[in-house]
Every structure is written in C-alpha cells, then in structure tokens.
Design goal:
Blueprint (H helix, E strand, L loop, with lengths): L5 E10 L2 E11 L4 E5 L6 H8 L7 E6 L2 E2 L5 H7 E4 L11 H7 L13 H13 L15 H13 L5 E5 L7 H15 L4 E5 L3 H7 L2 E6 L2 E6 L1 H4 L2 H8 L1 E7 L5 E8 L6
Parallel strand pairs: 3-8, 3-9, 6-7, 7-8
Antiparallel strand pairs: 1-2, 1-4, 4-5, 9-10, 11-12
Helix pairs in contact: 3-5, 4-5, 5-6
Bound molecules: adenosine-5'-triphosphate.
The site of adenosine-5'-triphosphate has 11 residues, from strand 2 and helix 1.
Pfam family, one: ABC_tran
GO molecular function, one term: ATP binding
Keywords: ATP-binding, Nucleotide-binding, Translocase, Transport
Length: about 260
C-alpha cells in the first residue's frame, strides 16, 4: 500500500499553559478533499498552522510525501504545502496578476524575476479560476468572491502537495460558495490533497471525501461524511439539536434546530 501523503503523529500544541491540540494522529492519502469541522476554538486553524509551519509543534511529527517538515526551511515547506488564509490581509496596491505571481516565489532561486514558465502557470491559473478578465485590477477593488478565487489561484500556482484552506466561503453568497467548493474539489482531483476548515457542515458533507471532526483540541472522529455526520455527533460536538436529512440526490443537509443550554442540566 502507498504511504500516506500527510502523516501527523502525536501532535501537541501548547500556547503557554493552554493545550490547543492534544495528541493529533492523522493519515491522509493524496487526491482527497478533506473537511475539518468543529466548533469555534476547537483547534482547526492551529492544526493548519502547524502543518504549514507557521506554528512550531510542542511535540509530535508531521511528514508530507515522506518529508519531515520540521527539518525543512520555509521555502522548501512552501513547495509541499500552500495556505489560503481566512482573511487576505493588506494587498498594497497589487494587481491580481502580481498577487497570484507571488505564489511562484518558492520556485525562484536568488533574484525575484519571473520567467516565461511562471507567466504561463499564472495565466493558466487566472483562467482556471475565472479571474483572467480581472488580471489588471487591484486586489483591493475585488469583491469577496473574486478575492477568494485570487487567493486560491495564488496557492494553486505554488504547486503544493497539500493545500490548506481556512473558511473559504465565510463571506460568499450561495453561488460563490458552491463555485469555490467546486474549484477546490477539482484541485483535489489533480492529486493534491485539499484540507478545508469550514463551518457550513452541509457544504462540507457534500464536497468532502472525508471529514475530520474536532472538539476541544482533539480529533473526535474521522470518516465518510454520510456516515460520521449524525444528529448525535452534532449534539455532542456543538451542543445543538439538529435534523439531518438526505435530499433527492442523496446529499446530506444539516438543519440546526436548538441550542442546548448545558447550564440547564
Ligand atoms: N497564538 C495564540 N496564542 C494563544 N492562544 C491561541 C493562539 N492561537 C490560537 N489560540 C487558542 O487556541 C484555541 C484554538 O484556536 P483555533 O484558532 O485553532 O480555533 P479554530 O477551531 O480555528 O476556531 P474558529 O472556528 O473560531 O476559527 C483557541 O482557544 C484559541 O484562543
């Protein structure tokens, strides 16, 4: 059997006395779309930041494609893993093309000067993500949906093996939510494993091959969303009563019904 693309062993992360991640163990194969689900503060972003080395681990190991990331320099890690953060941050008057081109940075040796190959990769990404017509526009002028697609294009041109996407649809309307998830799904079909943290569980259940459910810094369960996402699980993890159904296409939808006030018990 092939080795997993991402292998996390005994990952712990502490901020001072607070333990944000507790003994995380996870093996993921390539070519999958993975949904990271759990309540606010359960550790989703912290786990992503450990995978891309924004945070140092307190203990444990992370291997991507057999490579121990703790031994890699930042530029080498950037060739293995790319991140699409929840917020894009300041863009300093960059055009869409300029910003997406920044994703090629790990491939530049000493002097920053894009070559014709970089230009082809960027042009293709702009077309793939439907933003070619916006290429000369400043990123600060884009709508949320357009900016999100530009951020995904920037991560895509990094040609990573693992793509980490934090809350990709939080500012998007229904159409762009679906569109962004479609793009991410397509990327997972190019042998890239895409890990998405997102609060819309119905959307995650529909698009993800595997869901990783987290609670209080630990992995609660992992598996096929149609199997693992149940009313009992939602009650346990979110303290919310919900109804879970299947529409005529066999897709799961999750309807939150009532917040359970734990103080009442
Ligand atoms: N740099 C930090 N210093 C101290 N505590 C932190 C730091 N970063 C995160 N935490 C804490 O670690 C816990 C996990 O945070 P994290 O951002 O990973 O949660 P999350 O699951 O991504 O939440 P959300 O869904 O709200 O984005 C939280 O209690 C948070 O306050």
């Amino acid at each position: 059997m092939a080795d997993p693309l991402l292998e996390i062993r005994g990952l712990n992360k502490k901020f001072g006395d607070f333990q944000a991640l507790k003994d995380i163990n996870l093996e993921l194969d390539k070519g999958l779309m993975i949904g990271l689900i759990g309540p606010n503060g359960c550790g989703k972003s912290t786990m992503m930041k450990c995978i891309c080395k924004i945070h140092d681990m307190s203990s444990g190991s992370i291997h991507i494609d057999g490579e121990d990331i703790s031994r890699k320099k930042p530029a080498e890690v950037s060739k293995l893993v790319a991140t699409v953060p929840a917020e894009s941050g300041p863009t300093f008057g960059l055009t869409v093309t300029d910003m997406v081109m920044l994703g090629r940075y790990p491939f530049v040796n000493r002097i920053w000067w894009e070559n014709p190959e970089d230009e082809v990769v960027v042009r293709n990404a702009l077309k793939t993500f439907g933003i070619y017509h916006l290429r000369k526009k400043q990123v600060s002028m884009l709508s949320s949906g357009e900016r999100q697609r530009a951020m995904i294009a920037k991560a895509y041109v990094q040609e990573p093996k693992v793509m980490l996407v934090d809350e990709p649809t939080s500012h998007l309307d229904m159409k762009y939510k679906l569109q962004v998830m479609e793009y991410l799904k397509k990327m997972s079909h190019t042998d890239m494993t895409v890990i998405v943290a997102e609060h819309d569980i119905s959307l995650m259940a529909r698009y993800c091959d595997i869901c990783v459910i987290m609670k209080k810094g630990e992995i609660q369960t992992i598996g096929d969303p149609k199997v693992v996402i149940t009313e009992d699980l939602i009650r346990d993890v979110y303290e919310v009563d919900s109804r879970i159904g299947l529409d005529e296409d066999g897709e799961i939808y999750v309807l939150p019904k009532k917040y359970i006030d734990v103080e009442e018990y």
